[in-house]
Structures are given as C-alpha cells and as structure tokens.
Batch of 4 targets.
Target 1
Amino acid sequence: MTNDKENNKRPIIEKAIVSEKMTAIEKFQNKTLRPIIKMKHALLIAYFEHYLTLQKFDFNHLNELKKIEFIERIFSKDSQFRNEIKGIIIGHFTLEEFTVYKNFIKESNKRILTVVKERIMSTLV
C-alpha cells in the first residue's frame, strides 16, 4: 500500500505561473486546480474507463472524431458524471482553497471540467 502523503503530494506545474497581473480565478486555477487535476490524472482516467464499462460502451472501436464527440457529449449531457468529476477534485481542497472556491463556484467548475476533459481526450483519443 502506498503512503497517502506521498500519493497526495501535488505536483509543481512549471507552466502554471501565478503573477500579480492575473485575476483571482486564474491564480486559483494555476495554483490549485491544475496541480490537483494532474495529481489525480490516473484516477480520472480510471473513472472515465469505469464509466464506459457501466454504460456498456465500446469506446475503443470508435474513430478519433467519434471519440471526441462522445467525450464532448458526456461532459455536456451527463450531470451525474460531471458532478462526480468535480467531487474528485474538490475533495482535495484545503479549507482555505474551499473558501476561495466558494467565491468562484461556477467559473471554477467550468475550469475543472474543461481541464479534465482535455486530459481525457489527450490520453485516450
């Protein structure tokens, strides 16, 4: 079994620069959301693959365009899937981060789903 402290150590994303010129939501995305999403990458991919199994959907036999369309459709139509993805990420916030999140819930959720969708597409398409 892996050590939770090691398993939950957030990666540093060199491209995720935080500057004074950025808006608060941009800072939150680069400082909190992107590192958590990167840290949970394997879990997010496994969750998506489990979703496909539950839906009894053969994703691997689709061409690239159909895979993209399918992923887009899931992220736009399946609210339970979206909520579970958000929960995976939000569950890793500190109390301080959650306080910031509460000020930008709609925008933060949109950013979470966009980044996760892009990761799934870049990994599985």
Note: The chain has one domain: 34-124.
Target 2
Amino acid sequence: MAEINFDHFLAVDIRVGTVIKAEPFPEARKPAIKLWIDFGSEIGEKKSSAQITDFYNVEKLKGKQVMGVVNFPPRQIGPFMSEVLVLGFMDKSGSVILAVPDKPAPDGSSLC
C-alpha cells in the first residue's frame, strides 16, 4: 500500500451507527445483506449493502452498532443504492468480520 499523510486519513469520515433494519439481498451478485443504519441526528439514516452473510443474519443485526465510511458517494448495487461502506476485516477464509466498537458509543460518533 502507498503511504498517505494524516490529511488523507482525516478526509475519510468513519462513524458509528446502529442497524435499525436488515433484509436479505438475494439480487446481489455476491451474497449480501441490506442494512439501514442510524448515524445520529447530524447524518441520519443511511443504507448499505454488506457482504457479511457468513457470520451474520438479518435477525442478529438489528440493534448492532457498526462502523462505516459515511462520505463516499452512493453506489448502485443492483436495484439498491448503497450510501455507506460498512467496515470489517477478512478472516483466513475470506469471510467478513464486522468492525464494531467494544462498548456502546453515541450514534454518529467519529473515529478518533
């Protein structure tokens, strides 16, 4: 990876939000789940398509806090407009493990 300076890092707006709704996304090319995430009063509710089906299901995601990049442009994923990049890490098999705070944080809080 190329080295970046601190200003580049500051340009990425990473916030915490709470999943308020989750639905299967069978139309996606790769298995995914549609998420509606509350990022607090400043940002509001945003949608995301997340390829997290190996470890997560729609029933367990509601109420879960996740981290996401909120200042990328929206991206059309099939019939769904994804507005946020939900963050995670790949395990050895390529399955995504969500990046989450280890204690509750106010929705909309910035990564610092």
Note: The chain has one domain: 15-98.
Target 3
Amino acid sequence: MKEIRKKNRMWEYGDIIKEYDNIFRGIAKKMGLSECSFWILYILRTDNVEPVQSEICACLYESKQTVNSALKKMESEGYLELTSGKDRRSKRILLTAAGISLCERTVDRVIERERNALEDLTEEEQELFLALFRKFNGLLKAHMQGISEA
C-alpha cells in the first residue's frame, strides 16, 4: 500500500509541474510569443536589471543558442536593443519603447495575475510553499548527482 501511495504522489507531483508549465506555454502562445521570448520579457520586467545573455541563460536554464535566437528575433522586431556590456562579448539587453509596449500588453498582465494568485495564499502559506519547493529542488539536485550517462 505504501508503494502505491508513493507512485501516486510521484504522478501527482509530475502532473502539477506539467500543468504549471502548460499554463505558461499556453499563455505565451495565446500572446503570440515563443516560450523563450515570453520568459526573457518576464525576466526583464521582474528583475529590474539590464542582464546580459549569459544571465538570461542561467535564469531560464536554456542553452545560449536558444536564448540568442530569441534575442535576435526580438531585436529584429524592434522590441530589444543589445548594447555594449563590460566587454565586447557581453551585451546588455534593453527594452525599446516598442518592447515596453509589448510587455504592457503581455507579460505585465501575466505577472500581475501570478502575483494575485500568490497573494491569495496567506503569508504563512506563501512562506511554506516557497520553502518546501526550495527544499525539494535542493534534495532533487543532490539525488541527481549520482546519475551517470546512459
């Protein structure tokens, strides 16, 4: 019986994660954005910094190639400007006026609703939710350390 409960919990956890991802995938598509573009704009609107590409890659856990393609597309569409960073290889990512307008029509609305959903939890529930999710991710990373290539 205990093994069945464990399997059901694993299924439920997997289902919750996939549903969460699907919510954002669907919203990005509905707004006419690729997932990567959506998350780049999300970061630009929530982090209040002018990141470089490597920082975006680290935040999104995406490859440099995937992020670069999305950045180049948004730059060509006039939503972003890539300016010189600390060295020639790093470029700061800035929103243009058109990019700010795009964010106001898209990710800003999502961020507001996501914030509202989080605020519908009590303060204690918010702290517990975040603490447990952080703890689980740490434990998962530790347990994944021992996996070798197939």
Note: The chain is about 70% helix and 5% strand.
Target 4
Amino acid sequence: MIKIIIVMKKRKGMSREDFRNHYENCHAVLGRKYLGHLFERYVRNYPSSRLDIDDEGGETIDCVTEIWLKDAAALAQMQEIIATPEIRAVFEADEKLFQDKAASRFLIVDEVEG
C-alpha cells in the first residue's frame, strides 16, 4: 500500500470556510472523477485547533489530505493521468482558486501503525 500526504495552505485572502467548501465541492470532486478509481481511501483533515510543541508558531496548515493507493502501479497510473495536458490544466486552474500551491507539500510516506 502506498500513502500520499498533501499538506495544504489556503489561498491568501480566502476564509477557511470558503477553502473547505471549495475543496470538498470542487477539487475533491475532480480528484474522484479523474483518479478515484485508483484510491483505496481518500481523506481530508481540517484542523479544528492548533497544538504547538514549541513557542515558534510556524505556518498555519489548512488541510492535510491522505490518499492510499494499492501499489506502485496505481501511483504510476495516477502520475500518468495527472500529466495528461488536458487533465493537468483542469487541476491547475482549480488549484489557483483555493490553494497556495507554493506553500503546499506532497509526500509519499511509509505508514507505520502501533
């Protein structure tokens, strides 16, 4: 199983409510439309509060997305689909409406339980 984590920050000047509404009702819909057949699980986590471990503060995170894929073949297929110029253009246009893409991070992680 492969897990992708996307840490997102909302577009400057956008409310958290508008960010969440756009993500759930537009971007997540596009994700399921084009890539949903590859998802084993797709979860969006919206922080309700913040727990700082130190006094430094740091940047605000508006969403942590988790996507589980069956295997490396599913990841390769996902990357291929997103690289298709027409589909890439759809995602990029939508991302500009709600997300600070430069502040977002995309990670492939090894998940360990227990």
Note: Residues 4 and 108 are 5 Å apart (CA to CA).
